Amino acid sequence: MTSIAEIWEKIEDFLSSGMIITIFNWSIPLYTIIALVLGIIGLILIFQLLKRLLYRLAKNSAFPAEIYNGLLFLFRLLFGILLIWLILKLLDIESDYLLVISGIVGTAIAFASVKTINNFIAGLWIALSTPYLYGDYVKIDNVEGLVVKITSFYTRIKTYRENTILIPNLSCINSNIVNYSINITSIRNKIEMLKKQIENLQKNKNKKLKSSNMLRIAQFQDEINEKELILKNIEDFRSNLMNRKTSVSLSSFVQVDKVIRYIFTLQLQKKLKYVEQKLRRLQEEWYHKYHFHVDVNLIDIRSHFIYEFTLTTLDPVDILKFYPGLVNDVYKTIYKKSN
């Protein structure tokens, strides 16, 4: 019976025999092909292992999906570079040709990846600084709508016209962003931070800083009182809305610690009569019909009446569904009997 040592010796003899395989007039030693195949398999196994470890880390640490996707992209890019290097190295391409090919490949990767990498970095910035989150209603430059997806490279916005717009993350961070969502948790955290700052100032026994510390404490306390009042109003309003919404199905975008305050303006002619009364009636109709609240304020009376409408709701989908109808209700009601 043939032993393992004998089998291995035969394999060594076979590989060292100098057997050449010709592919498209290109002569390649057999051992080079075997080494290349084993190298590729090894790279694939390492990539899959890193991918699995990254997935477990993301799952256990609960960091945002966009960061996971971005790191996965970097691993794929590194895998591609190592694969190209392995092929060039094992095929024993002359150094002059290797430099030329490396330069071409490097330049191609640089041009192809510069926007992708910039968008990935912008995606990390969005994930860490959170100017908006999934389910927020935002305005990014001239694009306004509901954030339905954030990836490492783009943000997907759904508008009230039922269009879906993809905005590269780099464009997002270079744009003016208006977020109409109010995060109750962030307000609570801000209040706690201000209270800790007051405690630290009160512990400071430096007499020279006593007057300035007292002034700062008073300023911080005023800010705390203001935010606590805002928080109380929001929570009372949210509780009331939630009770009214029990008979209405809510979308998956509703979040426990958020309310949406969407603001838009409309221009009306000054000669119209009973505008205020009609708008007040519309407010009541909207509240009972749609289960959300709309504040109406007159903000300009120069050439026209310009009214500011503030729609407060738990469900950002309400804006997508009802905003066009609200505008239509205003114009239809105001101009209906004005002729």
Structure write-up:
The chain has 339 residues and is an alpha+beta fold. It folds into four domains: 8-127, Helix Hairpins; 137-179, SH3 type barrels, CATH 2.30.30; 183-247; 258-336, Alpha-Beta Plaits (2-Layer Sandwich). The protein is built from nine helices and eleven strands. A five-stranded antiparallel sheet has the order 6-5-4-3-7. Strands 8-9-11-10 form a four-stranded antiparallel sheet. Strands 1-2 form a two-stranded antiparallel ribbon. A hairpin with a 3-residue loop joins strand 4 and strand 5. Helix 3 (65-90) packs antiparallel against helix 4 (95-129), helix 6 (184-203) runs antiparallel to helix 7 (210-244) and helix 8 packs antiparallel against helix 9 (317-336). The radius of gyration is 32 Å and the shape is elongated. The chain starts with a helix and ends with a helix.
List keywords for this structure.
339 residues; alpha+beta; SH3 type barrels; 4 domains; five-stranded antiparallel beta sheet; 60% helix
Strand-helix topology:
Blueprint: H1 4-16, E1 20-23, E2 26-29, H2 30-61, H3 65-90, H4 95-129, E3 137-140, E4 143-150, E5 154-158, E6 164-168, H5 169-173, E7 177-179, E8 181-183, H6 184-203, H7 210-244, E9 258-268, H8 275-290, E10 293-300, E11 305-313, H9 317-336
Antiparallel strand pairs: 1-2, 3-4, 3-7, 4-5, 5-6, 8-9, 9-11, 10-11
Helix pairs in contact: 2-3, 3-4, 6-7, 8-9
